[in-house]
Predict the structure.
Amino acid sequence: MQQKKELEVFTHPMSSEGFRKHAHQTVDFIIDYYENVLQNKDGNHPVGETISVCSKVEPGYLNKLLPNNAPEKGESFEEIIKDVKEKILPGVTHWQHPNFFAFFSANFSYPALLGDMFSGMFNVVGFNWQTSPACTELETIVMDWLAKAMHLPKCFLSETNGGGVIQDTASSAAIVVMLAAKERKRAELIQNQDQFNMPEFLGKLVAYTSEHAHSSIQKACMVTGVLNFRKIKAKKDTFEMDYKDLEENIKMDLEKGYIPFFVCATIGTTSSTAIDPIGDIGPICDKYKLFLHVDSAFLGSTLLLPECRVAFTGSEECENLKYCDSFTFNPHKWMLTSFDCSALWVKERKNLKNALSIDPEYLRNKASQSGLVTDYRDWQLPLGRRFRSLKLWFVLRVYGIEGLQRFLRYHIELAEYFEERIKSEFEIVAPRTASLVCFRYRDETWTVEKENQFNELLLHTINETGIMFFTHTVLNGKFTLRMAICGTFTTQDHVENAISLITNKKNELLKEFK
Ligand SMILES: *Cc1c(COP(=O)(O)O)cnc(C)c1O
């Protein structure tokens, strides 16, 4: 045996005391950002001058400001924070700004951030139960809580054959359910066919969604090797999927020997928050044995409200969702749970496990073998997973269902107010289902092209001010501005200012627009 020898100790550059100090500084920085910088309460930042909601930097701006190589010797935290302020902040688009009306919001809240801090503290990699029982069990519990609060059908609760899981995004959710649907169809066909031919099967699978569905559904087809993807046309007034056209397409595909297997219906499309008629699409999926996925990434939060459940799902008990095999929504969009947190429920968890489970020796353990525990690695693409349920748990506990309901209703009321105020001067291009208003300037003496040019110019002019940030969509060939009211800190004052800015800019532009 060799003699014992003391090795030189490695000391971390940031001690516990250093962390305490810098953590406090960081918390102060965060509060200053939310209270003063974004809200302009200190008066040092005339709205639109210091802070532009949408960053105005040129591509490659940061490369000019940062060194070409990582530092050889560690640097002080003060230097780093200084660079965050001076170099990073200008390149940030302020998603949490109360005047951020673009896309759909990505809600922030203090409780969610605190939950994330705990997640960061434990820093577990919870791929199976054993790696941190609390990480798995809390996730199951909060997903059940949420399903019950939204009155989702019982089949999505963990006590049944289904259950909920947190994914990073609705895009990932679409990929895993598409894999589950492929697996379900394979299992069904292999039972009835002696000569099941896998390559042939894969080439013939068809997935369907509305022309207004999110691009992530098409991407899921690309990722999972589904070669046949059909966009079903939507109705011209409501932008909901034409379910008769869906059935026609399915019939045609069957006649040609294709294998229809998957439909994605949307509750709240990204363009205009249109609601596909699940009550009509569901029976079609049943009839032809198709897997029905419902994507409600943005609007899903509103199922916490009985009136929205009635309007979007047929009844206070989400009648129409009984048809669906999976349902997803993003608490990170409009439920105060910071990005990333996408809730996915499935009716049959075995479909997911059959599609995604592998059992290498190095992950074998008693708990998993016993079959008594959930191993969420089988419900997602990666092996590793974060302790995301903590932030959701914090939000649910601090706000309570009642608090979340008031938050959602406030935004819906603001959107209703906005719509009422502008509708004499602007065309409302799509029915407002909740807090998104789709509008455009219209002049009956103009061609649609001219109207489109004007509305595009109006959008750019508003965004140029830096005071607010809007995005657009195109509906029936019409360039349409979207006012998405779902920001954590957005109040009536902000909506009022938006009304003024939009109408003023419109009037100014009209004077010079030929
Ligand atoms: C935002 C959105 C998505 C994509 O969400 P990610 O979580 O970023 O993947 C999907 N579908 C709809 C309807 C959306 O609004």
